[in-house]
Specification:
The structure is a single chain. By secondary structure, the chain is of the alpha/beta class. It is 42% helix and 23% strand. It has nine helices and ten strands. Helix 4 runs antiparallel to helix 5, helix 6 (169-179) runs parallel beside helix 7 and helix 7 (198-208) runs parallel beside helix 8. The longest helix has 25 residues, at 248-272. The two termini are 37 Å apart. 34% of the residues are buried.
């Protein structure tokens, strides 16, 4: 269980996750971290015409437009991975119904720490861009344990925002595309509660990099509890609404609406060619990561 961010230090966070998560992953993945990161850390080698079994994410759209036939980029694998964490620190990420005080923010910090630890232990470099009301911080990609501690420290120090303009992930993703030049592994970590239009920016980012979307969510966002009359507040805008959760029809409508949003999100990720890892505040992170690694291993065989 995560502790409130105000009560921890970067060293304590890393020690806790090394013991509770990383050691368990070592045993379950048996060192096969390429099942998580396959296809990343690669250098451009050549171009050739597209074939039916090729991964469309490797299409070179500029060459395709000039030649009037699809061409794909071929890569030679490089040992080092450059990984970036694009972190949504907007107000809605602070929501959560677990015993932690910071809700989805807590699992964001834990997930980034675990992934950064796994990557840097194998000689790779990690960096981050943090976004709330505009891009608040960019941490250049570096390797080593000290870099992991720096990331933790910077995440813990990010302010809890309220009543800011509605989150625009599309703007954030465009900023990342302009800033990250070298082909990289990119984790977009967010609840994807955003102004519309971010899907095209995600697709464009995935044409230049290998992207994994990590969707943060809490059970109460889909299953409204029966707790009587309550005030629901939009974490992004501060707008408030009185609702009666004793009304079963209202709870059912709310659940159906959230289910539809879940379906639409999955379709958006699929259209963008991006794999999604769904991470709940109630999830066992180890099981979630291992399941995701197994899925990606299977997809690699299919592709």
């Amino acid at each position: 269980m995560s502790m409130p961010t105000s009560a921890v230090t970067p060293e304590r966070v890393l020690q806790r996750l090394d013991w509770q998560v990383v050691r368990r992953l070592d045993g379950l993945l048996q060192g096969d971290y390429r099942s998580l990161f396959y296809g990343f850390g690669v250098d451009f080698a050549d171009l050739r015409e597209y074939q039916a079994e090729d991964d469309i994410r490797y299409i070179d759209w500029n060459v395709t437009a000039r030649m009037d036939t699809p061409y794909i980029r071929q890569y030679t694998e490089d040992r080092e991975i450059s990984a970036w964490f694009l972190l949504d620190m907007s107000p809605s990420v602070d929501f959560g119904t677990t015993q932690t005080q910071d809700g989805k923010r807590s699992i964001l910090i834990d997930f980034v720490t675990v992934m950064a630890r796994l990557l840097t232990r194998h000689g790779n470099r990690v960096g981050a861009m943090m976004f709330g009301n505009g891009i608040q911080l960019m941490v250049p990609a570096r390797g080593g344990r000290m870099q992991v501690l720096r990331l933790i420290n910077d995440m813990l120090r990010q302010p809890h925002l309220s009543n800011v303009p509605f989150t625009d992930l599309g703007w954030f993703l465009k900023g990342a595309l302009n800033s990250i030049k070298k082909r990289s592994l990119i984790f977009v970590i967010s609840d994807f509660i955003s102004a519309p239009g971010w899907e095209s920016s995600l697709s464009l980012l995935n044409q230049h990099h290998e992207v994994i979307a990590v969707r943060l969510w809490d059970q109460a966002e889909t299953d409204l509890p029966d707790v009587g009359t309550m005030i629901m507040e939009d974490a992004e805008t501060g707008e408030q609404l009185y609702v009666d959760t004793r009304d079963k029809k209202f709870r059912n409508r709310f659940h159906s609406m959230m289910q539809q949003r879940d379906v639409e999100l999955k379709q958006s990720f699929k259209r963008a060619g991006v794999d999604m890892l769904s991470l709940s505040t109630q999830d066992d992170m180890v099981r979630t990561i291992v399941h995701f690694a197994q899925q990606r291993k299977q997809l690699r065989k299919i592709r």
